[in-house]
């Protein structure tokens, strides 16, 4: 976001830009915040559209093919935030202490959550390799040995690796915040809540358990807000019905069970072909998710590093 603010400032500067005195107007600041909320809403609608009832896509929410799109929301909301910072003319070196702490808290949580995604992806990749090895043993007619590797993909418990320590701003701290700092605070709260919700969906789909979604949706605390209320009401129902198990994993597990049952009569060719195809699809999805999360991790880490450097420069 630090880099984005610098880049966007060059494009947003124009003769009609609001005068500094106007920036101090509560009405104009409120309008800027509403514009940010509108931008975030448009991003959500574009990246994660809610299908109309009765369409083929209606029951595809718990599909990794849909869930992997969640990652795309984060960098786009960062751009919207950078745009807001430039519009209200409040660069990061002018933020109050609470806003600085909130940003650092937000970026650190993002890095932790991205690490959790990486762990979940590694678990799925390992499970996929085990099943693939079982298929190769069937090709060698080593059926008894193959059965030891043809195990269903199990849910992944993030355990101690999974933690979100969100900084809680007290009422006194928030009441002491005003003007541009208040807008930054409110927009950072939106970023944090959206990100927690997004990663809740993403991690539940990857780890095949409802736990990440249920925990992160509580931390997000934005479900009375129109920004994500529609998505949450649908996803909460879909995740509960599926127990958090993604469509792809559910299908792979079903074909795996059918293959193991078919080993007894030797009629395995059809199941082997089907399982091979589905494992290939899972591999491609995991590669896409891995590439997206690695890219976002590098971006957030670079932004956080530059932010910290700017603080050191300002303090001198």
TrEMBL record:
Name by which UniProt lists this protein: Protein BPS1, chloroplastic-like
Topology relative to the membrane: Single-pass membrane protein
Family affiliation: Belongs to the ROH1 family.
Keyword Membrane applies: yes
Subcellular location: Membrane
Family annotation (InterPro entries): ROH1-like
Keywords: Membrane, Transmembrane, Transmembrane helix
Transmembrane among keywords: yes
Pfam families: ROH1-like
GO cellular component terms, A-Z: membrane
């Amino acid at each position: 976001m630090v880099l984005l603010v610098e880049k966007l400032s060059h494009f947003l500067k124009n003769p009609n830009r609001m005068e500094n005195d106007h920036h101090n107007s509560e009405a104009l600041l409120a309008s800027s915040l509403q514009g940010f909320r509108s931008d975030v809403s448009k991003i959500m609608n574009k990246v994660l559209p809610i299908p109309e009832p009765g369409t083929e896509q209606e029951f595809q929410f718990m599909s990794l093919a849909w869930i992997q799109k969640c990652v795309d929301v984060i960098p786009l909301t960062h751009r919207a935030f950078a745009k807001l910072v430039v519009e209200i003319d409040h660069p990061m070196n002018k933020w109050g202490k609470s806003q600085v702490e909130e940003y650092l808290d937000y970026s650190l949580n993002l890095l932790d959550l991205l690490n959790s995604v990486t762990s979940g992806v590694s678990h799925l990749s390992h499970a996929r390799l085990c099943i693939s090895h079982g298929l190769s043993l069937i090709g060698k007619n080593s059926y008894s040995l193959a059965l030891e590797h043809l195990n269903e993909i199990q849910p992944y418990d993030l355990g101690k690796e999974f933690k979100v320590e969100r900084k809680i701003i007290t009422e006194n701290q928030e009441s002491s915040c005003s003007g541009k700092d208040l807008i930054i605070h409110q927009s950072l709260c939106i970023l944090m809540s959206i990100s927690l919700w997004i990663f809740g969906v993403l991690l539940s789909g990857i780890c095949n358990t409802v736990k990440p979604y249920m925990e992160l949706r509580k931390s997000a605390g934005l479900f009375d807000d129109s920004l994500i209320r529609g998505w949450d009401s649908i996803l909460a129902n879909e995740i509960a019905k599926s127990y958090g198990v993604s469509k792809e994993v559910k299908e792979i597990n079903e074909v795996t069970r059918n293959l193991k049952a078919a080993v007894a009569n030797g009629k395995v060719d059809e199941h082997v072909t089907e399982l091979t195809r589905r494992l290939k699809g899972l591999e491609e999805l995991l590669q896409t998710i891995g590439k997206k999360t690695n890219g976002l991790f590098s971006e957030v880490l670079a932004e956080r590093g530059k932010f910290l450097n700017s603080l050191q420069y300002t303090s001198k």
